Amino acid sequence: MEQRKCLECGEPLRGRADQKFCSDACRNAWNNQKLGNTSNYMRKINRILKKNHSILKELNPNDKTTTYKGVMVKQGFNFNYFTHIYKTQNGRVYYFCYDQGFSALENNKFLLVRKED
Question: Are 6 and 29 in contact (CB under 8 A)?
Fold first, then answer.
């Protein structure tokens, strides 16, 4: 009978027949290695999206307000990252970070909204 070995360190496994790792540390190390650079890129983008969402939510406590671009930029808002775009029938374009959206107005002013469920 062939002895089962840990996928990370090669140590012999004891216990359950479907066990793949000898410890949580080996399981975590193997998964981190497997995910590698691709997940780092995705984590970076998700951090930016979450930060944008947090800024919009903080600036828009009542679900609809206006603010200036400078205020958003000062807090670290990144206008290049959003989750989706919504265009109204009258042509206004909203950029959303999850449920929080923004639309450009005149004079570096922005309309902030929250999307209802």
Answer: no
The Cα–Cα gap between 83 and 63 comes to: 18
- pLDDT at residue 37 is higher than 70: no
Strand partners, 110: 67, 104
Domain boundaries, the chain: 49-114
The continuous run of DSSP H or E covering 18 comes out as none
Spatial distance between the Cα atoms of 11 and 4, rounded to a whole number of angstroms: 8
Can you name the residues that pair with 101 across neighbouring β-strands? 96, 113
Measured in degrees and rounded to the nearest 5, phi and psi for residue 80 equal: -85, -10
Q: What does the alpha-carbon distance between residue 44 and residue 48 come to, in Å, rounded to a whole number?
A: 6
pTM: 0.70
